[in-house]
């Protein structure tokens, strides 16, 4: 049976992504701190609570990947909460009284874009 | 809490569906329009080893060249102008950022595009236009020189030469690729390094896959929506696990429904400056691969653009705001139908 080819169709979607994805990593002053994924998430939630209070800290976000050796993670957050999450992690200055900082490597509304970041890539 | 905190820059996703056999199908021209690609990745479900024919195409991707401190005025030399007229090479300044530095690119159409900061633009003295993505105060200008129409010795030629050679002798690292011309001849005077695109393959076991229906692009009849599908594809390429418990503290990500389990899948990535011609060759080979009966009903091909190229689709201006993503994804089905998803970030034109 020869199937009829599907007709051409084009859809333009603006801001359809419900989420934003962030690639971040945590840098410590002295390099001898280890965290589990749960502790990492808890640290971010604490930061949110400090800046935005209980209500601000209540919005959900996901830790999609966590690399324990590099302390890097990919987060998924609703796009309406991106700015809040970003500002909160910027202001986190210490973990268990060791000073630390979050570095944001990439932010994108598409998770797929995080797998092909030309700024991080060594092509030669 | 102030509502401005909840706003985000815009993003665009253009979805198309069509059939490769359709005469008016634009799949090839769409791929050719996207000039600067830094990585492609190929996902083949129900496949354990890279098929020979596909491997042949992937390992025959053309080399690219890395040249250090290449003076931009070299493009005006006679042999370079001749090469431009013959049509075809891609050049992009490397390690330069579109929101911080001067970025230079040459398109196969013969256009030399300079995206310059305010100081360089004012010193250079070539006519340009303000960048589309400036704020109230213009801090970035785009100068386009059509190398194809430039004739040696004319007044216009002399002027461009004077500007690029004496007023501001711009020099940056470059990446070159592709084309009908022999880049080795052209680069003989320069210190260059030939690079091969790097191929990596990974076999994934027991993967949850969303079920795709070729005729249902928007996911209206209960299958996956384009955003869900792209998210899933991203999760696969970043090895994000789908099987999270409902009570999991860390993540609530799950594979979109309806889904099926795939015993194994092959994920191949090629990294390097990849010319659009090579992408087209690969696309043709994927279609041939699917022509024979296979367990899988589809294969996906993702092409990532460079975040810092001055153009994205065709010669549309590209910018960087929070992210500079510009990528497209083909899903090829067994009946020669295809889906094409083209995604851009905040400072990017709508794909053609």
Care to describe what's here?
The complex is a heterodimer of chains A (about 120) and B (about 350). Helix content of chain A is about 25%, strand content about 35%. By secondary structure, chain A is an alpha+beta fold. Chain A has a domain at about 25-110: Alpha-Beta Plaits (2-Layer Sandwich). The termini of chain A are far apart. The relative contact order of chain A is 0.25. The mean pLDDT of chain A is about 90. Chain B is about 20% helix and about 30% strand. Chain B has 8 helices and 15 strands. In chain B, α2 (about 50-60) runs antiparallel to α8 (about 275-290). The longest helix of chain B is centred in the last third of the chain and has 16 residues, at about 275-290. Chain B starts with 11 loop residues before the first strand and ends in an 8-residue tail after the last strand. At the A-B interface, β1, β2, α1, β3 and α2 of A face β1, β2, α7, β12 and β13 of B. β1 of chain A pairs antiparallel with β1 of chain B.
Please outline the helices and strands.
The complex is a heterodimer of chains A (124) and B (352).
Chain A: E1 9-14, E2 19-28, H1 37-56, E3 61-67, E4 72-78, H2 82-90, E5 94-95, E6 98-108
Antiparallel strand pairs in A: 2-4, 2-6, 3-4, 5-6
Chain B: E1 12-19, H1 27-33, E2 37-45, H2 52-59, E3 64-71, H3 78-86, E4 90-93, E5 103-106, E6 111-117, H4 118-124, E7 129-130, E8 140-146, H5 155-167, E9 171-177, H6 183-186, E10 192-195, E11 198-210, H7 226-237, E12 259-274, H8 276-291, E13 298-305, E14 326-333, E15 337-344
Antiparallel strand pairs in B: 1-15, 2-12, 2-13, 3-9, 3-10, 4-5, 4-9, 5-6, 6-8, 7-8, 11-12, 13-14, 14-15
């Amino acid at each position: 049976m020869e199937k009829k080819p599907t007709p051409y169709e084009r859809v333009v979607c603006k801001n359809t992504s419900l989420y934003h994805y962030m690639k971040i990593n945590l840098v410590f002053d002295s390099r001898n701190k280890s965290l589990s994924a749960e502790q990492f998430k808890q640290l971010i939630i604490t930061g949110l609570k400090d800046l935005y209070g209980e209500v601000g800290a209540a919005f959900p976000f996901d830790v999609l990947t966590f690399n324990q050796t590099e302390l890097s993670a990919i987060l998924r957050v609703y796009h309406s909460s991106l700015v809040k999450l970003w500002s909160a992690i910027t202001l986190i200055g210490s973990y268990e009284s060791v000073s630390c900082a979050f570095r944001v490597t990439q932010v994108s509304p598409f998770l797929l874009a995080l797998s092909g970041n030309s700024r991080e890539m060594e092509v030669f | 809490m102030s509502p401005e905190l909840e706003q985000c820059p815009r993003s665009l996703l253009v979805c198309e569906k069509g059939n490769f056999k359709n005469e008016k199908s634009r799949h090839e021209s769409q791929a050719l329009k996207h000039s600067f690609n830094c990585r492609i990745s190929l996902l083949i479900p129900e496949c354990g080893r890279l098929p020979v024919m596909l491997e042949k195409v992937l390992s025959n991707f053309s080399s690219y060249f890395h040249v250090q401190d290449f003076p931009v005025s070299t493009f005006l030399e006679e042999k370079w102008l001749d090469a431009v007229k013959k049509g075809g090479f891609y050049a992009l300044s490397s390690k330069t950022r579109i929101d911080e530095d001067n970025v230079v690119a040459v398109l196969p159409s013969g256009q030399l595009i300079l995206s310059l900061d305010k100081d360089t633009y004012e010193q250079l003295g070539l006519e340009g236009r303000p960048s589309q993505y400036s704020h109230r105060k213009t801090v970035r200008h785009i100068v386009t020189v059509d190398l194809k129409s430039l004739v040696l010795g004319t007044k216009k030629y002399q002027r461009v030469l004077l500007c690029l050679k004496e007023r501001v002798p711009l020099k940056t690292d470059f990446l070159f690729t592709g084309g009908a011309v022999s880049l080795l001849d052209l680069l003989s005077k320069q210190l260059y390094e030939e690079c091969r695109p790097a191929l990596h393959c990974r076999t994934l076991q027991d993967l949850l896959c969303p079920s795709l229906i070729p005729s249902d692009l928007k996911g209206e009849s209960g299958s996956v929506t384009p955003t869900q599908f792209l998210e899933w594809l991203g999760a696969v390429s970043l090895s994000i696990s789908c099987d999270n418990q409902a009570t999991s503290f860390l993540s609530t990500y799950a594979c979109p429904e309806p889904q099926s389990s795939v015993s194994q899948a092959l994920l191949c990535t090629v990294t390097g400056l990849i010319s659009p011609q090579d992408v087209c060759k690969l696309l043709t080979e994927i279609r041939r691969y699917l022509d024979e009966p296979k367990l899988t009903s589809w294969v996906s091909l993702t092409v990532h653009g460079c975040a810092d190229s001055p153009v994205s689709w065709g010669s549309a201006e590209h910018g960087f705001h929070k992210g500079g993503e510009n990528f497209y994804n083909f899903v090829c089905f067994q009946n020669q139908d295809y889906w094409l998803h083209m995604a851009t970030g905040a400072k990017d034109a709508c794909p053609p």
